[in-house]
């Protein structure tokens, strides 16, 4: 029996499909309205900033040559520009002059690295005097206490 078509909760019934389409259209319209409202608010904010900057510029041209920057410091634009000569900024001037304090290394770390390097050199390098320095193998050395082992008659 195929009675699913007659149930109200059937997902693919015509009535439920129309309801879904209507809900999607309503949600899309709400999202578009929200996006439009956000865009309008952002445009108004930008316009207010531009108007404020233009007003400051106009008052600066009409008033004195001094102006206050955003942090509240008073600067004289013409005097400051003329006092600074335009030249290239050299971040490494002290290094080039040799006046910079170069960073000293960690002595413990350097000593450890030196020990590791010496150990590596000993491992890898060919030592010509090593046959004279090396000891005899353990199996060639005489026993310090040469005691004969007691024999039993069972052996």
UniProtKB/TrEMBL annotation:
Q: Mind telling me what this protein is named?
A: CBF1-interacting co-repressor CIR N-terminal domain-containing protein
CBF1-interacting co-repressor CIR N-terminal domain segment(s): 8-44
Give the start-end ranges of region Disordered. 22-42, 54-155
> Which spans does this entry mark as compositional bias, Basic and acidic residues?
85-100, 111-124, 139-155
One Pfam family in the UniProt entry: Cir_N
InterPro entries, A to Z: CIR_N_dom, LENG1-like
């Amino acid at each position: 029996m195929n009675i699913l078509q007659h149930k109200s909760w059937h997902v693919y019934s015509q009535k439920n499909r129309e309801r879904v389409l209507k809900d999607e259209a309503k949600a899309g319209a709400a999202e578009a309205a929200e996006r439009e409202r956000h865009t309008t608010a952002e445009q108004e904010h930008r316009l207010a900033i531009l108007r404020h900057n233009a007003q400051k510029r106009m008052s600066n041209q009409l008033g004195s040559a001094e102006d206050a920057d955003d942090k509240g410091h008073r600067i004289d634009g013409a005097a400051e520009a003329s006092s600074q000569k335009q030249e290239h900024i050299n971040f490494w001037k002290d290094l080039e002059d040799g006046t910079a304090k170069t960073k000293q290394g960690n002595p413990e770390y350097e000593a450890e690295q030196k020990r590791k390097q010496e150990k590596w050199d000993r491992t890898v390098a060919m030592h010509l005097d090593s046959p004279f320095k090396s000891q005899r193998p353990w199996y060639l050395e005489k026993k310090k206490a040469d005691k004969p082992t007691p024999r039993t008659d069972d052996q």
